[in-house]
Amino acid sequence: MEVVVRSDAGEAGRTAADIVQHALRRGVRTLGLATGSSPLLTYRELVRRHTDEELSFASVEVFLLDEYVALPAFHPQAYAQVIRREFTQHVDLDPSKVRAPSSTATDPVAEARRYEEALAASGPIGVQILGIGRNGHIGFNEPGSSLASRTRPKTLTEATRRDNARFFTSLQDVPRHVITQGLATISEASHLVLIATGPGKADAVAAAVEGPVSARCPASVLQLHPHATVVLDESAAAKLQDLPYYRHVARHKPASQGY
User: Which of 92, 96, 85, 74 is nearest to 35 (CA)?
Assistant: First the structure.
């Protein structure tokens, strides 16, 4: 696992955008996108590069990490709408190549199975963008999720619902159920890129990066991945015990290795 620490959230977002841009130049054509607040600066930077520097997404296929259950398809907080609003409608990405679990499927179990099959049919995700919850969840794999889990419906913890309530009119409006890629599904991506900013993520980051690999901290599964990059700002990195070593590696990493 590579840990990259930047001075602030803006720099962290630009670093993650660099990773995506380099991957596209190497021929990666499948991206996995997370929603939430952490990746937003990355998406905005990619939009800027598309507008100002002609970075193209025309041949890219996108898979979303998760989606609420029983939320109207055009609800502003449906994740397919959030990604459209924040990223995909602003670049030259074919809307038909943006895939997400259906928020209105009558059978969420069957819908999760269908989505897992669609991911498998398209081959591994080239770069999977991830955020991390305060309790260490990635996607909506809450603590206790099996490290071998596949795409499936999940019940959200009350802590996660409270964290997400800021996007809704009230806590009562936050759905209790979601469809999420599982930890094993996520781990099949070629490159995992986790972005975390702000002091509220410091405990979760420390547990994920330096704690034991455990279902108690689902993001710790990144420790098992052969190509995982954790991009942080200073405040999110504040509780890492080996922070001096990560800085040392960043300074002396051979340029040929890139990301």
Answer: 85
Q: How far apart are CA 29 and CA 239, in angstroms?
A: 35
Alpha-carbon distance of 50 to 91, in angstroms, equals 6
DSSP state of 39: T
Is residue 117 left, alpha or beta, with left meaning phi > 0 and alpha meaning psi from -120 to 50?
Answer: alpha
Residue 201: is its pLDDT beyond 80?
yes
If you average pLDDT over residues 154-170, what whole number do you get?
94
pTM check: above 0.85: yes
d(C-alpha 248, C-alpha 259), whole Å: 16
Q: How do residues 61-86 score in pLDDT, each as one tens digit?
A: 999 999 999 999 999 999 999 999 99
φ/ψ bin of 146: left (φ > 0), alpha (ψ from -120 to 50), beta (otherwise):
beta
Phi-psi sector, 170: left (phi>0), alpha (psi -120 to 50), beta: beta
